[in-house]
Design a protein that fits this description.
Number of domains: 2
Strand order of the largest sheet: 7-8-9-11-10-12-13
Structural class: alpha/beta
Largest sheet: 7 strands, mixed
CATH class of the largest domain: Alpha Beta
Number of strands: 13
Distance between the termini: 21 Å
CATH superfamily of the largest domain: DHBP synthase
Order of helices and strands: HEEHEHEHHEHEHHEEEEHHEHHHHEHEH
Strand content: 15-25%
Shape: globular
CATH architecture of the largest domain: Alpha-Beta Complex
Number of helices: 16
CATH topology of the largest domain: DHBP synthase
Helix content: 25-40%
Radius of gyration: 22 Å
Oligomer: single chain
Length: 376
Amino acid sequence: MLIGRPVAFVATPDGRALRRVDHAITDLRRGGFVVLQKARTALVVQAAEAVKPESLAQLEALAQGPLWLVLTRRRAAALGMVEPPSSPGGTVLLEIAAGTDAAQLRDLADPGAVAAARAPLESGGASDIADAAVELVKLARLLPAAVAGRLAERDIEAIASRESILPLDIADVLAYRETAARSLRAVSEAHVPLADAENTRIIAFRPSDGGIEHIAILIGNPDADKPVLVRLHSECFTGDLLGSLRCDCGDQLRGAIAEIARAGSGILLYLAQEGRGIGLVNKLRAYQLQDAGLDTVDANEQLGFDADERIYLPAAEMLRQLGFGRVRLLTNNPDKVAALIRCGIAVEERVPHVFPANGHNERYLRTKATRSGHWL
């Protein structure tokens, strides 16, 4: 049964733009600044969790007018500043009151701290730059919040040069995930016999900016003329490697390998999207919130993320390069089915992939079913 019709895409990877965004990600993770530009408007930006007294003073010296705290609407809603959003995405700009110190700003970004709410301001022409600022800190796997100041048009080039701050067009930031996915190329391959699947090849795919690799695990000899059994598995350090009982990821990974081997052939795509795309550090922060009583969805949203930040264009691109356009998808997640179809892969069958609870993950599995619509 054909579940959906594929849509054709044209790949137009821009290696130079990718490398500039990757450079900016590194700068933010080190506590540095980035200048984000759109036409004649620019913000100088720092990740909120990296703000220190000296960097806050430097931002105040560089900016024209007040500084702003940029939060996702999810995080602002968690703080009681705005109504909860009805759809993913969106940012809120908050003017930073005089006398606010770096610790207070970090607290506003971190749901582990209690901070006073401030009313949102109109952002004018800077709203889409604010969106890019949040996207950039998300790409850096930091808390989705930034401190920003507007730069005068006449000062943009001089400040970027004098302060050695990378200027970046917001279009490159907002297109980064898609552009990186379309630039994926196979860079190495080896035969790796597995405990449940001895006839296995592993192929590593890397984006053109040298970013993190995604892995294709080919079991047996799949026939490209037939729908191939495929599992999309997002990496989970705690579940896959350590055997964590908080989730069912380890069971799903090993179970998928065994199931594909029993079927004779297929592909498992191991995607570098830890914690539903928020990264390992933020996943551990979400675990702390879950221990305080929140479920997985609410914990991610308290941090300022959407419930699921993953994209599946990398998976579709890898399948295309491997020569497969029709799949039998091993999943319980309706979003994976819909996403692959949107990315041009024909999903001809959904194959259930369910494992029993273990005594620690009942609430996790219940949340998947009731809040995320998984077929469990």
